[in-house]
Structures are given as C-alpha cells and as structure tokens.
Write a structure and sequence with these properties.
With about 425 residues, the protein is mainly β. It has 3 helices and 32 strands. It has a domain of about 110 residues: Lipocalin, CATH 2.40.128.630. The strands form 8 sheets. A 4-stranded antiparallel β-sheet has the order 1-32-31-30, with no helix packed on it. Strands 2-3-4-5 form a 4-stranded antiparallel β-sheet, with no helix packed on it. Strands 6-7-8-9 form a 4-stranded antiparallel β-sheet, with no helix packed on it.
Length: about 425
Amino acid sequence: MRLFYYLRLLTFLLPLTALAQPKPSSQVSYPAAPNPADDFSSQPVLAWKFRARQPFFASPLIDDGRVYVGNNDSTLYCLDISSGRPIWKFPTKGPVRSGICIDNDRLFLIGGDSGVYCLNKTNGRVNWIFRTGGEHMYDQYDYYQSTPVVKGDTLFFGSGDGNVYALNNRTGTLIWKFRTENVVHGKPALYNGRLFIGSFDGYTYALNTSDGSLVWKLKSLGQRFFPKGEMQFSPIVAGGIVFIGGRDFNLYAIDAEKGYCRWNKQYPRGWAPVITPTHHDSAVLVGTSDDKVLLQLQTEDGKEIWRTNVKFNIFGSSVLTANMCYTATLMGKIFGIDLRTGGISWDFATDSYKENRLKYFKPDDTYRDDIFSILHSQEEYLEFLNKIGAIYSSPAIDKEHIVFSSTEGAVYCLKKA
C-alpha cells in the first residue's frame, strides 16, 4: 500500500480524534468456552527472545513443544519452546515470508525461492521438494507468501506465479493447478468441498477442491488509489459466508455457495486486511490498517458489536483463547483484549519500540508533530517500521506461552506470570 503518502494525506492532515469506546452487544451470545483457564487475562512476562539476522514477517507455529518460524534470511528455524534455543534450521534460497502447516510428522513450507518443501518436523530433513513457476513480490507492500493448508492427503496453496496448487502431500506430485491473472499470496480457506482464495488480479475465487474447477469468482470494486482492487489478503469462512479484505479499502462478505456479495463495508482510511473467526459463527474479528482499530462484527449484516482503538496498523490475524483475543500491531505491540467487550487488558512492547518510540511518537503513541522532518519517503517509512519492531505476524499460543515475531529480527516468547 502507498502507506506513506496516503498516511500523509489522511492521518496527519486530519485531527486525531478519540474512537468509540468498546461497547458490549446484547444481540450476540457468547457460549461457554471449554478452557477459560487458558486465558492470558493478566500481563504475561518475557520467557526468552531469539535473534536472527533479518526481519521476521512469517508467523510462528507451536507444535509439540517447538516453535517453527521462517525469516527473511531464507531460513526456517525450529526452536525449543522452553528455552528458545535452536533445535535445527533449514536453509532455502529466498526469504521465508510464509507461515507453515504441519500434518502428523510432516511440515510444509512455501519458500521465496519457488520451492515448496515437505520436511520431517523432528529433524528438518527433506521428504520432497516441488517447484512452482516462480515466486516474487507484487510490490513492496506485498508482505507475505501464501501459507499452505492440508486437507486429507492434499496440500493447497497459492503462488507468486499466479497459480493455486493442489499437491499430494505425501509425494509432492501435482494433482491440479488453477491459473489466475496475478500473484496469489493469501492463505486458502477450505469449506464444504471448496477452496476460497483471492488474487492480485482483483478476484476472489471459489474452486472445487477435488479438481480445481472454477465454481464462481467475484470481482472487487476497486478504489481511487488501487483501481485493480487487488485481493491481497487471506479469506476465512464463518456461517456460510466468505470474508475477505482487498486493497480497495473494502471488506467483503460473500455467500460461500453462490458467490454473490451479501454485504461489504468500506473503511475510510485504508485496508481491512485481517479477518479472524470467533468461537461461534455469528461474529468475526476484523483488524484494520490505517483505521487502526480491531472490530467485532456480526456475520449476518456487518453490524459492529465493539471496536477497540489499538493506535496503529494491524496486519497479523488475532488468536483466541476462551474469553480473550491477542492482536499485534506494526507499532511493535501485542495486546490482550477481552473478547466479550473489546476492552484492552494488557499490552507488551518489543525492545525496539521501547528504544526508538520517542524518535517518532509522542508519549501517548500519536505521531510527533515534526514527523515529516524525520520521514521523507516511503522507503524511510518502511525502515521506521523495522526500527520499532513492527509485528506483521500472527501470534502463536499454547496453554502457557504466547510467541510472536517482529521486524527487528526477534522472536519473543511470553509466559503466564
């Protein structure tokens, strides 16, 4: 996104005003969750940090006492969850900006070098490698590669070569591929025998998982700054509705069966890149970029249940426990938020945020009045995000730990106090 220039036009020229306070809704019920003891309802403490040579954009995954996370240094790291010490690492030949998925003892990784890797999750040894037609970034705001998903014996993912792929996950052989007209970097959503995914060509696609045939496609509206309406982000399905955000500032709610748009909401300042399912089909969480709010919306009509001002851009999905959600921002902060009310219970900041925040922000975390004497270009803006430890990733969580990665090249592990 043309963050710097659009930020200048809208964020700095308009007065900053307080956003609505979180408001609970009586229209949505919250069923009893099975493990409320798993909530991180109070401030967690740092257990360990791991440092790599380059920024992290990929989201970590916790599995069997290990943390798996890819780095821009072209390496996938396997870390011990109790200490943060590396157990093994796997080198590729391109930046790793993809999350991974695990099925039994097999780990699947989309590399920045056009390689799709199946590894043994215990020791990192290669089971098979599949090569796509090539991997590349659409532009400097195309932050991620596609994260693969597994269903049965099939691995599904998108690629920078414009294709959606289905592979046999045991052998790496191609089952089918479907061609779009541009980069496909979202994580596929699977529902009722169909795969849903967006492309930078501006379409959202529904494909049959069995053979890759097209069921329907829906074109985005487009927007002044982004007339193609690139569908950069990852869809989710809740209540028979496909939710996906595009670069055209719109959030779309699409009927999963028939492919028509039930409703859409346009956010005035920018993208709504992140949609997270809740514990029930009646509501979803939506993280916004330039609007800087986390929202809980009713799935049926998009009505707001609550909104919470997190003061900066959200690009990683939230993760949930029974009564809490955990959301990170590009300011280098992760928040523990009450899932029922939207109230912020705690926040934790990266080291780089603590060290550099006053170079860019006032004590209340709004921009300094002289920010444009400090940041002169889009490149400087992106470098500033690295300097404050921006969190593009989604946190990973188990009963005792929250793990997240940041652009300062660090993985943080928090534990209950």
